[in-house]
Amino acid sequence: PKGISSSHWGAQKFLAKPYASDGELHFTSLIPFGINSIDAWWTAYDLVQIAAKEIGEAEAYFSCKSIRPNVTRVSGASSPASFSRYVRVEGWEPVETRPTISAVTDVIKRLGGAELYGRDSLVPLRELIQNARDAIVAKRTIEGRTSTWGTITVSLTSDAGGDVLSVADNGVGMSERTMTNYLLDFGTSYWQSGDCLMEFPSLNFEQFSPVGEFGIGFFSVFMLGSKIKVTSRTSSDGLQQTRVLEFHNGLSTRPVLRLANHEEQLLESGTTVAVSLADKKAIDWILTPKREQIKPLMTNTKFRDRWTLTEALAWQCPACDVDIVVVEDGTEQRAVQANDWISMEPEQLFRRLFLHRKDVDRVLQTKRSQFHLETVEKLNDPDGRTLGRASLIDNLSQLRDSNGLYGIATSGPFRSSVQLLTPGIMLGKPTSASRNAAEPLAFEDHRVTSDWASLQANHAKNSKHFSDIEYLSGHAAYVRSLCGDMTELNVYLYCGKATSLKAIIQSGLKFDKVYLYPLNMFMHGGPIGGCETGNPSHIGVTMGRMTNGKLLKMDDPLARSSHPRWKQFWYSLWGAAIEAIAIAWQCDLTRLLQNATSVNSENDLLNEPAIFKRPG
User: How many angstroms separate the Cα of 199 from the Cα of each of 142, 241, 541?
Assistant: First the structure.
């Protein structure tokens, strides 16, 4: 046994059979727990704590009954020091040293609100929708429902007390234990707990992947108001077991848990969270488009002054896999249809991603944007799951000049951060608890990116937008870095003209030596001295030794060479040219690199050529 299992086995090995005496249950040890068995001792202590809790609850239950239990407490369970008198230790002292937080409310205010998320008014909505989404997808999994079943309803209404924003779902709902132990336990995720497995033993986590993992999102709702009502009911509860948890004054007073009255009872399982907004500014705060400023690239962007709640949620939840319906001013509108981002027309997709911009019509009509709209392709994993829909930008200067299209990385279904090089949308995973930044899942596996990148290379080859070799070279470099096939792009200087690697390979390179020249023409104004562009043994690499285009989160996933230098430039045009030489000569790549001169340098801009000798 390893890990927790090992500690449990160790605890059982030391513990003797418990016995009852004078109303107490006594645990003892056969031999002392030495310094190598500290984890096992603490596991024994945790087990005794569980026993003490169970016996205490039984004692409370029987206190009003005629039957009295013989055992009402566990000896030594009050503290580690007390327990060590019965279950002995040797060579160390069991002192409770786990971290504690005294000012819990202050910590929650700091880490669960504006100081973590900033003044982003959509964060509380996002977190509530995230919880609703997880509850619905869990119910889909448990009950075998379709991948589009379930609805999240977001409502903005007014009553005598002011405006109320509510998020309702028809998911699994929350039991009393879940509402009190997990919803209110800052930093604890219910989906990762043992109680979740006990309540939903049929929940298959290979099929269900919760977005919530930090256990702090619910507390962001206090950014909107201090009066909050949570109403929930599980599938196993009857109508009358609907429960209400109310916060009357934020986190400064204890919440109230009660049974729902007749009007509050839920007809089916699910949860509704209603927030009484602090003031009218909260509404304006929510309905003011977010300014996604990417300096210095987007200095000319025109932002909208106001949007509807439907537009705000479509922008914030662009890849949601659950329907989101908005009820505003008595009118119902669908903000997002489950997984519609996978099949909607590219122009519709970009309009959703750029709902915050006033100039979206102008941007979409540019020739550059039209090219990207025509070349949006899916990124699918080996199981067929779509991880993104995007094009590949050819040069960042084009984005700067036109304030054009760019990409979005999500945290699960929700908008997170900008991806400049991939106009479109990429599913990602958060890199921080605030979810303000994410890394695309597609870039973790070359099997996802290689086919997509190869398609992008083919689009570039057939497009009139790449008449300039500089732009085409930048595009080819990114294709290469994603393990795509860029061998048909004319980005190398060979025999006096721009040539593809495919043509160079087909030439056979029938020479004993081949010279690879780093042509940093875009930085140095032209080819370097010594490169004879008409010499068939000279190959000019238009981006030189530049290796700053690595996008995959791995080193040479195709394992083409074990040479220590190879991992530094395999993903560049320089590395692609070296591989092409090996293919043309039909020799081992590692052996070719071992016999080469000046293959690489710590200085990527070094103008010295690399010389390759044909292996004997």
Answer: 11, 16, 61
Residue 616 has pLDDT above 90, yes or no: no
Rg (CA), the chain: 31
Report yes or no: 239 and 265 within 8 Å, Cβ to Cβ: yes
Return the amino acid letter for 367.
K
State the residue for tokens 């040293």: 97
Tell me the CB-side half-sphere exposure of residue 578, using CA atoms within 13 A: 34
Q: State the average pLDDT over residues 2-24.
A: 86
- SS3 assignment, position 136: helix
Asked if 463 and 441 count as a contact pair (C-beta separation under 8 A), the reply is no
Pairing of strands 151-159, 414-419: unpaired
Residue 533 near residue 493 (C-beta atoms within 8 A) = yes
Range of weakest confidence among 86-90, 218-222, 375-379: 218-222
Q: Using alpha carbons, select from 158, 189, 198, 153 the residue that is nearest to residue 171.
A: 153
Give pLDDT tens digits for 523-555.
444 455 567 767 889 999 988 888 767 888 888
Number of H helices, E strands in the chain: 20, 23
CA distance 191 to 125: 20
Whether residue 291 contacts residue 302, with contact meaning beta carbons closer than 8 Å, is answered with no
Is the whole model's pTM more than 0.90, yes or no? Answer: no
Distance CA 167, CA 325 (A): 10
DSSP of 558-570, one letter per residue?
T-----TTGGGTT
Span 551-580, pLDDT tens digits: 888 888 999 999 988 988 899 999 999 999
| Cis status, amide bond into 527, omega within 30 of 0 | no
